[in-house]
Amino acid sequence: MAQTKKKIRHDHGARKKEMKEHYDAIIVGTGAAGLYCALNLPEKMKILLITKQEADQSDSFLAQGGICMLRGEDDYENYFEDTMRAGHYENDKRAVDLMIRSSNDIIRDLLRYHVDFARDGLGNLAFTREGAHSQPRILFHEDITGKEITSKLLMQVKKRKNVQIH
Ligand SMILES: Cc1cc2nc3c(=O)[nH]c(=O)nc-3n(C[C@H](O)[C@H](O)[C@H](O)COP(=O)(O)OP(=O)(O)OC[C@H]3O[C@@H](n4cnc5c(N)ncnc54)[C@H](O)[C@@H]3O)c2cc1C
């Protein structure tokens, strides 16, 4: 028993050393957060993405409704208030601000990764209203927005030579 424990400790230590030597960053999870993080780290970094399931199995793949975006400065206060109210005013205000302020850059990135959001008759992005949002500020792809976003992120990650998925 003691020998087995010693061996497990040794193997664990060896694996840790091996990981430290091989990778500059280890990301846990292949949902939207983990994949987007991998795509935003410098390509000179060696990255390991690990998941406890298959890479295409996560809540991110199941998300149906859509993703919100700040459409203009005049909607900032409403957007902030809607988010705080939905979180029973327990949200970290700095995180809410960051989410709203970074939404345009993130949507731009997603479009660059060929995420196909619904369009109106003129070819502009179509916004809908759902959940706690008082204004139409949700971009969507049918009722499988999470799958559309996450599968496109995964496709981009798989093209990166510096990222390994386990
Ligand atoms: C049915 C449904 C509908 C939703 N609809 C919407 C919506 O319309 N709009 C919206 O904004 N949000 C929606 N959400 C919420 C949204 O899906 C999540 O907030 C978002 O996907 C979280 O992304 P994430 O990358 O942080 O986590 P996840 O997508 O949950 O990914 C977590 C990853 O971590 C891995 N992991 C976890 N524990 C371990 C471990 N111990 N070791 C290794 N790997 C681990 C998992 O396998 C997975 O790969 C919905 C969620 C569900 C379930």
Protein architecture, described:
The strands form 2 sheets. A 3-stranded parallel β-sheet has the order 1-2-5, covered by helices on one side. The protein has a two-stranded antiparallel sheet with strand order 3-4. The chain contains 6 helices and 5 strands; from the N terminus they run αβαβαβααβαβ. α4 (76-86) crosses α5 (93-112). With 166 residues, the chain is mainly alpha-helical. β1 (25-28), α2 (32-40) and β2 form a beta-alpha-beta unit. The mean pLDDT is 93. Flavin-adenine dinucleotide binds at residues 28-34, 50-53, 58-60, 62-67, 146.
Secondary-structure topology with pairs:
Layout: H1 2-22, E1 25-28, H2 32-40, E2 47-50, H3 59-62, E3 67-68, H4 76-86, H5 93-112, E4 138-139, H6 145-159, E5 163-165
Helix pairs in contact: 2-6, 4-5
Flavin-adenine dinucleotide is lined by residues 28-34, 50-53, 58-60, 62-67, 146.
Cross-sheet strand order for the largest sheet: 1-2-5
| DSSP, total strands | 5
- Residue share in helices? 40-55%
Distance N to C terminus: 30 Å
Mean of residue pLDDT? Answer: 93
Structural class: mainly alpha
- CA gyration radius, whole angstroms: 20 Å
The helix tally amounts to: 6
Bound molecules: flavin-adenine dinucleotide
Q: Which outline best applies?
A: elongated
Largest sheet: 3 strands, parallel
Strand content: 5-15%
In N-to-C order, the SSE pattern is: HEHEHEHHEHE
Low-confidence stretches: none
